[in-house]
Structure prediction request, 238 residues.
Amino acid sequence: MALAENFIAIQRRIADACARAGRETTAVMLLAVSKGMPPESVDEAVGLGHFFFGESKVQEAKAKIPQCASRARWQMIGHLQSNKCRDAVQFFEMIQSVDSLALAEELNKWAEKIGKTMPVLLEVNAAGEATKFGFKPDAVLEYLAAINALPRLELHGLMTIAPWTPDPEKVRPAFRRLRELKLECEQKLGAPLPHLSMGMSGDFEVAIEEGATIVRVGTALFGSRPKPQRPSLPDDGP
Prediction:
């Protein structure tokens, strides 16, 4: 019951944020962040009519996806290592976390091997945090043409992870910067980029007001993630 109630509440909040921004609700996709959640939770969400899910770790997704409803559709949103590119290309329909030209080239190589065209977003470290992955905003423009020229990748837009803060208004500048950067990229390419993936459970409404087309919501939908269980120690007693 909690998941159904959360789902309805989030849809309402998305609609309200869109109304404030003068946007259609259909312009924003909810990506349910299912990392750390069991297949049963994914299947429950699918039963409610939601089909788009985001995972952060390739190994977890590789084990989970075959156990979930076949109607579920998956996107990679976490940091991707080059040695996981083969599996990422096979299991995901979009990779949101392309953060270097080298990674893009590796994804292109594996997409070519299996004959797949891979939609991607470029991850941007919009706030310049030392602990975050992603292109610096100026570097996006520098590498844009080279990544766009890779034949097996389709560049669909930009993604960012905003700094955590209890006050969502404080991250509005980061979201605004990403929107402005997307416009710069479109001007340089001479073509539209349909997606801005930004905003999570604590700040997705501000992100929508600043132009997000994909919001990545986990805990507000599924609740707190289960803590990994520690292996039990053998009983050495009598």
